[in-house]
Design a protein that fits this description.
The chain is an alpha+beta fold. The chain is built from 10 helices and 11 strands. The strands form 2 sheets. It has a 7-stranded antiparallel β-sheet, with helices on one face. The protein has a 4-stranded antiparallel β-sheet with strand order 4-9-6-7, with no helix packed on it. α2 packs antiparallel against α3 and α4 packs across α6. The longest helix has about 30 residues.
């Protein structure tokens, strides 16, 4: 028997090789990873695996089709399928995943909205996903109690996926009767971001306030601007942050708060991903340039 393995490093947390104790639905492995550029995987697996993209981008090839994926999407790997997926060389993705099997597994994935032809779907808010996956990872010790807790959190995650799919189906029916063209909604959302970006808004709140679903808003942004609403919001905040840092008047922590981030580390990671330089180094470099310029005068 393969030993259960728990890994916890700076960019990879995973609980795997879990024993199968239930014919109904089994958790096989679960984890979170910040992938390196061009991190590619091709091995077929014996279980279903759902990946939830948290940030960055990458590709997924299955059934002869290649999908380019970004944050806010999820993709399904079927058992024994020949697949390839990998991270972008410039903006590598971070994702969470869960692997499972059992007699109900095929029925469950269809209730999540997946089919053999539809392997990529919008994902629920990542806080919902991470709450359940982190809870599974935290209960890592091999006790009957923790085994039951992990299964509870797995089933809660599955319930969230089923509810999210039902909400999407309902929203799609409603959106067939939208009152305005797509560019009107995108323009309204862009103006909303320009005014409210510093208040910690997210895409779900923007969509709710302008009267469409989060999924449909992302589709409208992709259609009109070629990027997701999430990427537009992050890019807007990062450019605003760069402008504020260039003034030299504010600390990195102050700038993070001013562009809607409560957590400085989350802000710094997003800034570095966008500009390939940390905000503190960006600020220090600007100060050095200003000092050099003053000496030359």
């Amino acid at each position: 028997m393969v030993n259960v393995k728990y890994t916890n490093s700076a960019d990879f947390r995973c609980l795997e090789n879990l024993r199968q104790t239930d014919i109904d639905t089994n958790l096989i492995h679960v984890g979170i990873e910040d992938c390196r550029p061009n991190h590619v995987l091709t091995l077929p697996r014996d279980e279903y695996i759902i990946h939830f993209i948290l940030s960055g981008s990458g590709f997924y090839t299955a059934n002869g089709n290649t999908h380019i994926l970004t944050a806010g999407q999820m993709f399904l790997i079927h058992p024994s399928e020949e697949i390839t997926y990998g991270s972008d060389p410039v903006d590598p993705w971070s994702y969470a995943w869960i692997g499972f099997n059992g007699v109900r597994a095929t029925s469950l994935v269809s209730q999540f909205g997946f089919t053999k032809e539809k392997l990529v779907l919008p994902a629920p808010d990542q806080n919902v996903i991470l709450d359940k996956i982190n809870s599974m990872l935290e209960h890592k010790t091999l006790t009957i109690g923790n085994e039951l807790r992990r299964k509870c959190y797995m089933l809660l995650l599955f319930a969230d996926l089923i509810d999210f799919h039902a909400e999407q189906v309902s929203a799609e029916k409603k959106e067939h009767s939208l009152d305005y063209s797509s560019n009107v909604y995108v323009e309204h959302a862009v103006n909303y971001i320009k005014v409210m970006y510093h208040q910690g808004i997210n895409v779900s709140r923007i969509a709710e306030d302008i009267g469409v679903s989060r999924t449909h808003l992302n589709q409208l942004f992709q259609k009109e601007l070629g990027v997701s609403a999430q990427k537009f919001l992050i890019d807007f905040r990062m450019h605003k942050a760069a402008q504020l840092l260039m003034t030299g008047e504010y600390s990195v922590k102050e700038v993070a708060s001013m562009v809607g981030y409560e957590d400085q580390l989350t802000f710094s990671k997003a800034f570095k991903k966008k500009f390939e330089i940390s905000p503190s180094y960006y600020k220090d470099y600007k100060d050095q340039v200003d000092q050099f310029s003053e000496k030359q005068i």
